[in-house]
Amino acid sequence: MDASALPTCPACQQSNQVQKVTSTYGMNTKEWYETVTTTDANGNTHSRQELREAHTKLGLKLKPPAHPPQPTHPGLWYGIGGLIAFILASTLCPIALIPLGFIIPLIGASSFVPDVSGIPAWVITTLVIGLPILCIAILGLAGVIWLGSKIKQRFDRDMKSYKDKKALYDRDDRPRWQRAKNRWEQLYYCMRDETIFIPAENKAIKADDMEKYLYDPLFRG
Ligand SMILES: [Zn+2]
């Protein structure tokens, strides 16, 4: 677009200081990549590129409306929780089984298990060791099932609240932001008055009130 095609500022009725906000913002914003080096628990260093942004005062004022934060899917938190539980269980269970390794030979080798009226000692030994283990296993299984059902209930509740939030987000927050963003792309800035305007609406708004105006077309500065 050549300069003569620029719209007239509603405040000063001239167009010679008018710029498209998208380009004013671009000229007042600097983006660059910075190498960030971190050291992990194993002492290895990792480098990654991070996008940095700097704005002039004007650039900051004319920043496009920020994307609204999305609700987090609860599956993410349950996944992280499950992973931690799995790591803990796979570390702690073998440790918990160590005492068993001492007890079993002790009972098996001991002679305190009497040979009761013809029943072979190995049957007694099996019962003495097997029954408690079976009981613990059944109790453990019941505990896991109970815990699982509690987590499932909780998950269903979280999922429902997430769906409600997501629906609200999809219905209200995102379209509202999308409209504001589209309006931002139509904005012009007049350097003389430090005002912004959308040609079709022909209203001069102070650059400080840009965000309000983007979300509310009826806003009057
Ligand atoms: Zn003007």
Please describe the topology of this protein:
Layout (H helix, E strand, L loop, with lengths): L17 E3 H7 L1 E11 L5 E11 L1 H5 L12 H36 L11 H65 L2 E3 L4 E3 L7 E2 L3 H6 L6
Antiparallel strand pairs: 1-4, 2-3, 4-5, 5-6
Helix pairs in contact: 3-4
Bound molecules: zinc ion.
Zinc ion binds next to loops.
SSE succession: EHEEHHHEEEH
How large is the share of residues in beta strands? 5-15%
In terms of structural class, how would the helical and strand content be classed? alpha+beta
Shape: elongated
**Major sheet attributes:** 4 strands, antiparallel
Q: What is Rg?
A: 34 Å
**Spans where pLDDT lies below 50 across 5 or more residues:** none
Tally of DSSP helical segments:
5
User: How far apart are the first and last residues' alpha carbons, in Å?
Assistant: 29 Å
Number of strands: 6
Distinct ligand kinds: zinc ion
The number of distinct structural domains comes to 2
Strand order of the largest sheet: 1-4-5-6
Mean pLDDT: 89
Provide the helix percentage.
40-55%
In words, what does this structure look like?
The strands form two sheets. The chain has a four-stranded antiparallel sheet. The protein has a two-stranded antiparallel ribbon with strand order 2-3. It has two domains: 76 residues, no CATH class; 95 residues, no CATH class. Helix 3 packs antiparallel against helix 4. It is of the alpha+beta class and 221 residues long. Strand 5 and strand 6 form a beta hairpin. The site of zinc ion (ZN) has 7 residues, from loops.
